[in-house]
Amino acid sequence: MPLNIKLGVSTWLWTSPFTTETISLFPKIKQMGYDAVEIPVEDPALLDVKKVKEALFNHELLPIICGAFGTSRDLTHEDPAYHENSFRYIEACLDISQQLGASFVAGPMYSAVGKARLISAEQKKLEWDRAVSNLRKVCRMAEERGQKIALEPLNRFESDLINTAEDVMQLIQDINHPAANVILDGFHMNIEEPDIEKAIRLAGDKLIHVQVSENYRGTPGTGQTRWDAFYRGLSAINYQGVVSIESFTPAIKELAGAVCIWRPLASSQDGFAQEGLNFLKRWANSNGV
């Protein structure tokens, strides 16, 4: 049976940061055949929400709001000032999501991306507890707006806190709030998960968004990803959300440096988007082969 999903793409594939002018990508994204667009909100002040909403409506694209968690946005930091900065930022993202008609904000919002160290069990417990306590506050902020959050495990080179579906499900259990949900990213899963199907099944009905690229962050269908396992896992949990391509352009040096992309991953970013979409359509309508 075909998967009952929608297909999306992140504007990070072409540019960074997302500004109001980035809506110029929407006609192309729609023309290619996408249903949804991921909007990475690096700086909420760069968006004219009314214009973005208008463009989404005009091009019949569903919005997915993703957060960007650099060093100044860290809910596990020992300095509470970092927590407050994170709260203000996440609150702004939740407001944007609500205003655009999206239903959640996704990302690794428990800690700063790149915070990957060998620390003691005591320090890990301390930071875990901070993440749980602060994310519970975030969940309340989301609930007040009729929103959810989707927490994303990252690979070991980008986080020492949450690396697997098992980790994120434990975090959600400890947060113990219905607004806490999961996003799984195939790039990170290819590094950390022994069994992609099992990881998806473990997330179950808490899985509200899926991101994909290849094991080398390239075009879906060109690498070593077990797409059959992805298909079986999503079928097993009756996933009906968006499966979205997330990768990055080497042309934006700051972003490329942050995600360690030192070379082009496709002949063109448009080609990446179109060929990736074509593959995902075939995959979703197959038996996962």
TrEMBL record:
Residues 28-268 form the Xylose isomerase-like TIM barrel domain. Keywords: Isomerase. GO terms for molecular function: isomerase activity. It comes from the Bacteria. It holds the Pfam family AP_endonuc_2. PANTHER family: HYDROXYPYRUVATE ISOMERASE. This is Sugar phosphate isomerase/epimerase.
